[in-house]
């Protein structure tokens, strides 16, 4: 199979309804994308898989749903007002604006710009004669820091006092609720708070489809712990996140760890898990040892005591936080690349397939009447019954071969064909997407058969 490029994937997603350009009929808005009928189901299933892996299957783990708009003091305490910025420079020739670190990483990912100071980045760009991606010249302004937070105003008067921010990370919603969750769940340390939700960043650089967007979703997970346990938990969550990706069908050789040398303003240690996208390795997950940075600052700015008193030893300390964060949109993109195949068939034709694991496939099963005129009523009856349990696709349009192909690229793992045998003997045929093999099953066994194969 030929290598699938990013442009190929954009086309596949647009053609079949996974992802469309945002505000499409107006010509789009840079770095925004809308999930279509298939994409939104896939994304929701991936979010459910995270819920299962990080919340349901772990002890002392709680999900919350905090607001996007928060008291602006949160972002002063978190350091985002002063430090959440990108190093930007302009091309003097064509006047386009770029992130210095991206220029370097896109030129050669082994240069690792995230380990460099501003001065080192300028030097590196000059030394390697790194060209402007737009015009090809290497003639840039100095680097300036540009804050990535989107601002808006609340109330009727627009002034400095009315500024609120669209959250640039979910994590702070979990930190400001640390005391609430601890009290209402009567938890002792360690315990975890997770949340899935939108985050916003005023990214100015081209995004590689949904890899870098201005509005995106994060699945963030904070474990509050004794400082003594933090190194062990940090290593544990590095591995746990990798296991999560592997559980979704991503092979280990498409994943790698990248330990950070230069750390974000809040971190004591940080490591990404990267996936091998067509443009190179790209971060999908981050594990961070945030130390007591966040809770200490929230204590300072809010006046609320964050100190924990160990009920057994009476030891007092501000908990450390180990964060495990996953970008939903990046994970969806990785799964699309990992699943899509243009398969050469023995008869010389090709078929497009999405090999999603059944647990995350947008539709678990399709129901097709073999001949619409004769089998429609029975097929609709089966479809309606199955929709009580699963997302089911009903398709009666076109030849059976064409319908199988459509199901393949929609990633439907099981396709049920309803024919005379169904009407006369209660038997259905199931076709398997990946092998194209078929078996016959009693209709009464169908629901349990599918249920067993879609466990998260
Ligand atoms: N709370 C920590 C935090 O926000 P981050 O590494 O800045 O850390 C976490 O972001 C994850 O969010 C990243 O691993 C990535 O998957 C995703 N992410 C970050 N910026 C993004 C963007 N502009 N577009 C899409 N996903 C993004």
Residue runs with pLDDT of under 50 for 5 or more positions = none
Class per helix and strand makeup: alpha+beta
Number of helices: 15
CATH topology category name of the largest domain: BirA Bifunctional Protein, domain 2
Mean pLDDT over all positions = 95
CATH class of the largest domain: Alpha Beta
Distance between the termini: 30 Å
Report what the structure shows.
By secondary structure, the protein is of the alpha+beta class. It has 3 domains: 268 residues, 2-Layer Sandwich (BirA Bifunctional Protein, domain 2); 61 residues, Herpes Virus-1 (2-Layer Sandwich), CATH 3.30.40; 92 residues, Anticodon-binding domain (Rossmann fold). Helix content is 33%, strand content 27%. The chain is built from 15 helices and 23 strands. The chain has a 7-stranded mixed β-sheet, with helices on both faces. Strands 20-19-21-22-23 form a 5-stranded mixed β-sheet. A 3-stranded antiparallel β-sheet has the order 5-4-6. The longest helix is centred in the N-terminal third of the chain and has 20 residues. The two termini are 30 Å apart. The site of glycyl-adenosine-5'-phosphate has 18 residues, from strand 10, strand 13, strand 16 and helix 11.
């Amino acid at each position: 199979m030929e290598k699938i490029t990013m442009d190929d994937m954009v086309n596949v997603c647009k053609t079949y309804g996974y992802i469309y350009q945002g505000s499409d009929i107006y010509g789009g808005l840079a770095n925004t994308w809308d999930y279509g009928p298939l994409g939104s189901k896939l994304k929701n299933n991936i979010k459910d898989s995270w819920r299962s892996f990080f919340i349901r299957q772990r002890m002392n783990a709680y999900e919350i749903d905090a607001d996007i708009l928060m008291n602006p003091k949160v972002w002063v305490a978190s350091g985002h007002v002063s430090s959440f910025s990108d190093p930007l420079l302009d091309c003097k020739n064509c006047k386009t604006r770029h992130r210095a670190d991206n220029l370097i990483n896109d030129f050669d990912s082994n240069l690792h710009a995230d380990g460099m100071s501003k001065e080192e980045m300028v030097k590196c760009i000059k030394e390697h004669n790194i060209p402007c991606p737009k015009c090809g010249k290497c003639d840039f302004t100095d680097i300036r820091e540009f804050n990535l937070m989107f601002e808006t105003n609340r109330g009727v008067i627009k002034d400095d006092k009315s500024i609120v921010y669209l959250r640039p990370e979910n994590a702070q919603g979990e930190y400001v609720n640390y005391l609430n969750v601890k009290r209402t769940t009567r938890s002792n340390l360690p315990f975890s708070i997770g949340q899935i939700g939108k985050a916003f960043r005023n990214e100015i650089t081209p995004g590689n489809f949904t890899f870098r967007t201005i509005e995106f979703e994060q699945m963030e997970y904070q474990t509050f712990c004794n400082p003594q346990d933090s190194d062990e938990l940090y290593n544990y969550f590095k591995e746990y996140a990798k296991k999560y990706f592997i559980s979704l069908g991503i092979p280990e050789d498409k994943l790698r760890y990248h330990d950070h040398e230069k750390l974000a303003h809040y971190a004591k240690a940080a490591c990404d898990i990267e996936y091998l996208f067509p443009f190179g390795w790209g971060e999908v997950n981050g594990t961070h040892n945030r130390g007591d940075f966040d809770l200490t600052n929230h204590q300072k700015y809010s006046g609320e005591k964050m100190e924990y008193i160990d009920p057994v030893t009476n030891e007092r300390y501000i908990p450390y936080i180990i964060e495990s964060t996953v970008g939903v949109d990046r994970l969806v993109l990785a799964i699309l690349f990992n699943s899509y195949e243009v398969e050469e068939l023995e008869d010389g034709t090709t078929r497009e397939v999405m090999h999603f694991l059944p647990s995350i496939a947008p539709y678990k099963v399709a129901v097709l009447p073999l001949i619409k005129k004769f089998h429609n009523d029975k097929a609709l009856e089966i479809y309606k019954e199955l929709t009580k349990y699963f997302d089911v696709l009903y398709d009666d349009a076109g030849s059976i071969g064409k319908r199988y192909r459509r199901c393949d690229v929609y990633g439907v793992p099981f396709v049920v064909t309803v024919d005379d045998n169904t009407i006369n003997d209660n038997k259905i045929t199931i076709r398997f997407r990946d092998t194209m093999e078929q078996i016959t099953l009693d209709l009464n066994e169908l629901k349990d058969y599918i249920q067993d194969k879609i466990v998260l």
